[in-house]
Amino acid sequence: MAQHEHVRVAVIGSGFGGLGAAVRLRREGITDFLVLERAGSVGGTWRDNSYPGCACDVPSHLYSFSFAPNPDWPRTFSGQQHIRAYLEHVADTFGLRPHIRLDHEVTVMRWDNDELHWVIETANGATITADAVVSATGPLSDPKLPDIPGLADFPGKVFHSAQWDHDYDLSGKRVAVVGTGASAIQIVPEIQPKAGRLTLFQRTPPWVMPRMDRAISGAEKWLHRALPFTATARRGLLWGIRELQVGAFTKHPNQLGLVESIAKSNMARAIKDPALRAKLTPSYRIGCKRILLSNAYYPALAQPNVDVVASGLSEVRGSTLVGSDGSETEADVIILGTGFHVTDMPIASRVVGADGITLAESWKDEMQALRGATAAGFPNWMTIIGPNTGLGNSSMILMIESQLNYMADYMRQLDVLGGRAALDARPSAVGAWNRRVQERMKRTVWNTGGCTSWYLDANGRNTTVWPGTTAEFRRATRSVDLGEYEVVRAPATTRTAAQAVTEEAAR
């Protein structure tokens, strides 16, 4: 019989969550693990999203691991290429390369009730078993394509922002951009000068704040290298400012009016046409949808070769794009800035739990996980950036590191239990946690601000964002409460291969 590889932990994905998990496992003394990555290099969403202008909207010194500071960030808000290079650096610095299996897309992972381990199959034919799985595929990994009649028959070029075709020349083309999210507002200013005509199909206008970006001076870099505590202090200041902002988002949305006035002033400086300004002014409370940062978006929309269709795209008839208002636009290329599968993550359909049902089936009514990490019926399975762990105003790296603390204690608890054991989140504990989160969510701007956003699932529930501070979440995930878990032991009749050999020798 073919021998299958067995590891203590299998990590799925090699973005911030996956690489962070790998570093933390090594720090915990666990070296028997693999990182399974579907692509040919590490980097996650910062590898996939290489569109023009791609950059982070969180300051560089806060959008990096606390255990891997980078004194050489080139700008206060770093671009995609620098963040991807940082992740490659983390993989090298912490000796993760031997653990990483590239081009190993997971097609299914099944829990084996008898052996108390996960059986993982990959697209290239590998089979791996693991005592525990850490799923770090992330919510921004699978592009969401819109269901627009006629789109499949469009005779020109079509691609999603996360699957940018760098070989396609936009010069002089009639370009249609669908969507006005974080990717679109970065793409539009970059491609507008090249396009012959650019039409932006906007379903809902975003709130756009000024982007306080600048080059980081050589003196600053030197200081952070020579005196590392200065970088730590800088990071702490950036974190503290954002923690103070949380209350306005989660408890007192009416306090955000001042922020709206700043955003309106940002628009007014560039958009002089009252009709265009009316199209671009949101009717919902700022913060309800993700607040975007740009100094170039509004100036690009004011250029004479740009049109804004404020009713969204409703149909494609050949090369003619029809807006919901009946307007028609001819296009050579359609760029889809339509986001990702966030509340219906495709990886969930590939996880089969103890009862033989998939995680997607378990989550069909609502995604929910205990402390954003574990799901009932899926023993020894954890997710990084799980349900209700997203942020509306700060760095996701803070949330990831909190979840890594939880993961580390989870593995310690398994060691304490000894023998062949697994932990399965109690349905009552998952339900209680979710009820507390959703109760707090009722007051937040994400639920009361008057918008429909990608934070909400098909049933209108906010299963994406954390309704509190990052400090609160860190306290909540500091350690595992065994009272929230069922301890699962292997059936008495199940023998490991080693036990069978020992028993045979005894005869």
Automatic annotation (TrEMBL):
Cofactor(s) recorded in Swiss-Prot or TrEMBL: FAD
An MF annotation (GO) of this entry: NADP binding
Keywords noted in UniProt: FAD, Flavoprotein, Monooxygenase, NADP, Oxidoreductase
Gene3D superfamilies cross-referenced by the UniProt entry: FAD/NAD(P)-binding domain
Entry annotated with the keyword Ligase: no
Keyword Chloroplast attached: no
Described function: Catalyzes a Baeyer-Villiger oxidation reaction, i.e. the insertion of an oxygen atom into a carbon-carbon bond adjacent to a carbonyl, which converts ketones to esters or lactones using NADPH and/or NADH as an electron donor. Thus, can convert bicyclo[3.2.0]hept-2-en-6-one into the oxidative lactone products 2-oxabicyclo[3.3.0]oct-6-en-3-one and 3-oxabicyclo[3.3.0]oct-6-en-2-one. Is also able to catalyze the sulfoxidation of methyl phenyl sulfide (thioanisole).
Annotated protein name in UniProt: Baeyer-Villiger monooxygenase
Organism: Streptomyces pratensis (strain ATCC 33331 / IAF-45CD)
